[in-house]
Write a structure and sequence with these properties.
- The structure is a single chain.
- With 428 residues, the chain is of the alpha+beta class.
- It has helices at residues 24-40, 83-92, 95-104, 124-137, 186-192, 252-267, 284-297, 313-322, 336-347, 403-427; strands spanning 14-20, 43-49, 70-71, 79-81, 109-111, 116-119, 141-143, 151-154, 157-160, 164-166, 168-171, 198-204, 208-210, 221-230, 233-244, 248-250, 272-277, 349-356, 364-369, 387-389, 396-398.
- The strands form six sheets. A six-stranded antiparallel β-barrel has the order 13-16-15-14-17-18.
- Helix 1 runs parallel beside helix 4, helix 2 (83-92) packs across helix 10 and helix 7 packs across helix 9.
């Protein structure tokens, strides 16, 4: 990249920038482009083209409506797919800078014990309102109900829908998750004509569908650790509150591993298995001592109560049923060899994963534009001069806890400032 410190108006009199997609990354790309234009003394016309009737629709439902917009503990391990690319981009605009920016537009933040950063209001609407007001203050034009279905090179720039001209484009159309909020994969269709390669786009941060799952567990919530194995190796693990449904496993631990599960199911012929430890605070030896001690001290206790002090009763009853223990009979009849089977149920319950719930249930999608297609410093596409990408359309997905929105802000920032810099370099 050329040195940009000494830009002036006569080097780049006017820049027309089209931001395709008005989600979190698109909004931030537009604001960053506006800020960089002002810093460099460049006159710019920045327009967001959004298919929905308003920008930021998906932002309103993040963090259960509270907008967990970043995390104070961001590390490369929190990103998947093109993790190295994501980490490099994050370093250019990190969580501290994110909080500084939001403070500058009137949104104070608060951080919980897990490092999750929220607006002090705990309302996503307050974040979106502040961003919308800032777009207006920066003179960004917002065209809603305007999906972009075609982009063609034209006169050194690009023509959108045969109607709108732009010197430079930023594509921020999202992936395929939550199509009800507008993420329908349109950006991939937009770039298909240019032979831009994609990593398979799959659901992530979504529940796990398991084979022959006991429907009676629906509604149960319990602390536990999920380990995902494929080909005999542990490929993912997470601990927290597991939610049991009639189709399989949900809750944050299930969602955290779901992107890796999606990739494993897509790319391997090996079965993907979930092993659940429903008592992660005790070792197998400690649990065995407890159960044997209980059998000795309370031999007349009905079997249905054997595990009720360890796991929710419905879960414990399912464990016992799976190894044919009669819940009515007294626990005194349980043999030492059967105790080992009980421990296996509690500490190492195996489920065969059939699939990850689809895009309608997913918070984000994994996969997207391959990092091989992208200039890592600027997020410009290598094959298309003056077209930049940011957000979920790129092969980057983050853990649950604010990491995906941080990727949106970081990538939007990098794409936005470089959209201005690159077009001005070309004009100098």
């Amino acid at each position: 990249m050329k040195n940009t410190k000494n830009f002036s108006m006569n080097m780049c009199d006017s820049v027309s920038i089209a931001v395709i997609g008005g989600g979190a990354s698109g909004i931030f790309a537009a604001l960053s482009a506006a800020g960089e234009s002002e810093r460099l003394g460049v006159k710019s016309l920045i327009t967001i083209y959004e298919a929905n009737s308003r920008v930021g629709k998906k932002l309103l439902v993040t963090g259960n409506g509270r907008c967990n917009f970043s995390n104070s503990n961001v590390a490369i391990d929190n990103f998947h797919g093109a993790a190295t690319l994501a980490n490099g981009v994050y370093k250019k605009f990190n969580s501290d800078k994110t909080c500084e920016f939001f403070k500058s537009i009137g949104v104070l933040s608060k951080t919980d014990a897990a490092g999750r950063i929220y607006p002090m209001s705990l309302q996503a609407a307050s974040v979106l309102d502040a961003l919308r007001f800032e777009l207006d203050a920066r003179g960004v034009v917002v065209k809603c109900d305007t999906p972009v279905s075609e982009i063609k090179p034209y006169n050194g720039g690009y023509m959108l829908n045969n109607r709108f001209y732009a010197d430079v484009c930023i594509i921020a159309t999202g992936g395929k998750a939550a199509p009800v909020h507008g993420s329908n994969g349109s950006g991939f269709d937009l770039l298909k004509q240019f032979n831009i390669s994609n990593v398979a786009v799959l659901p992530a941060l979504s529940p796990l569908v398991c084979e022959s799952f006991p429907k009676g567990l629906k509604g149960v919530r319990a602390q536990g650790t999920i380990k995902i194995k494929s080909g005999g190796k542990v490929i993912a693990s997470d601990t927290g509150e597991i939610q049991y449904s009639d189709y399989g496993l949900s809750g944050i631990p299930s969602m955290q591993v779901s992107g890796i599960v999606s990739r494993a199911l897509e790319n391997s012929s090996e079965r993907v298995l979930a092993y659940v430890d429903s008592c992660p605070t005790l070792t197998e030896s400690q649990l065995k001592d407890f159960i044997i001690g209980l059998i000795k001290s309370s031999p007349d206790l009905p079997g249905e109560y054997l595990l009720s002090g360890i796991v929710p009763k419905k879960l414990g009853m399912t464990f016992l049923s799976d190894i044919s223990i009669n819940p009515v009979k007294k626990i005194a009849i349980i043999k030492p060899g059967v105790v080992d089977k009980i421990i296996s149920q509690v500490k190492n319950k195996k489920y065969v994963i059939k699939s990850v719930r689809g895009f309608s249930d997913a918070q984000v999608s994994c996969g997207g534009i391959s990092e091989r297609e992208i200039c890592s410093d600027t997020l410009e596409l290598k094959k298309l001069k003056n077209i930049f990408v940011c957000g979920e359309i790129v092969d980057v997905d983050g853990d649950c806890g604010g990491y995906n929105l941080q990727w949106a802000w970081s990538s939007g920032y990098v794409a936005g400032i470089n959209a201005v810099r690159e077009i001005c370099c070309a004009s100098s």
